[in-house]
Fold:
Amino acid sequence: MTVRCDVSAVALQVAAAGDASSQRWPLDDNRGDVETTLVCAMLTNVRTPSRRGTSRAARLTALPLSALLLVLGGCAASTLPQPSGAATATTAGSGAATPRPALASTPTGAAAGYDTLGVEPDQGLGVVYQAIAGAQHSIDLVMYELEDSTAVSDLVQAERRGVTVRVILDQAYAKSENQAAYAALLEGGVAVHWSSTQVDITHQKTLIVDAREALIMTGNLTSQYYATTRDFVVEDTDPVDVAAIGAVFDADFASSPVTPSAGDDLVWSPGSEPALAAIIQGARRQLLVENEEMSDPEIVAALEAAAKRGVDVEVCMTDSSSWSSEFDALVHAGVRVVTYAANASLYIHAKVIVADPGTSTEKAFVGSENFSSTSLDLNRELGIVLDGSAIDGQVAAVLEGDISGATAWSAS
Structure:
């Protein structure tokens, strides 16, 4: 297995409208027709933030109309709060292009030098922009929610320079969020399809470049969340994995039935629950977990069983009354559950498991799967198992830092 994940800082622009019924939109930059089409479409795309399978508390401070007009005019900017230790996100006016710094890798394998980890919000989404900009032949993107005008513009520019660009966007639950990007991509000549009807929700988040590397993400390309959301990006260059991801893309692009191949390290939904439960069940000493949801009975039971057999289990999430009964059950079983408030400067959106970090049996999972029956059994999702990779320790270090800054859950 060859896994690499590059990181770089990226400047961000975030704007939010006033009341609870107002839609959210990114204003990353303004670069001609593509940007104008996308932003104008987003301005008319009114929606509410709730969505099944991907719950998210409202986390952005509303701006008064006067401030919003200043942002739109490029005369004012605001920066969302950062978690402790995170790189500060730069906010640019709508007329300023998003900076694209040179790709910066953080090696963790002394000899190989290819195992690195992209961590948001600390290091931003530069790896995605750089991957699109560096494509020479083809780009295949699957995204649950695409509300990043920089990414959309880059995809159109890639198509215009001769790269074959194909995009799948979810229509089952995020169609309204994706409508503006869909229209801009279509106008720009990109082959964009709504998600396959063979699955419930397409919650997968992957980018294949030149059929030689795949970015496997826990987060959406939604720029307003980049500055505050914990997510990870892994670049997988294992040819068996990349071919397997590409084969599923081809089938889903055509809305045809497919039985995904696990490749060397892949975990697909529908049907990912056994693989994730196996990681939990195989832990001997320690389990570190972050997820956005906690409702799947089998996963909850596996975590409880691990704690009862003496494994040190720690779960870090954003606080939500939706999972209070599950949190209580986990705590009573001996699991340490810690949470961040819904309005905290760090939102836990990542979907990761680290088993036995720092030991010969260490293993990590990074992917799009939430711990819900819908996500594990019905959706199109994709994650990767990093078995003894140098990335495992970096993921564990991030989770340990998040856990140390969270508040212990008090069971009733």
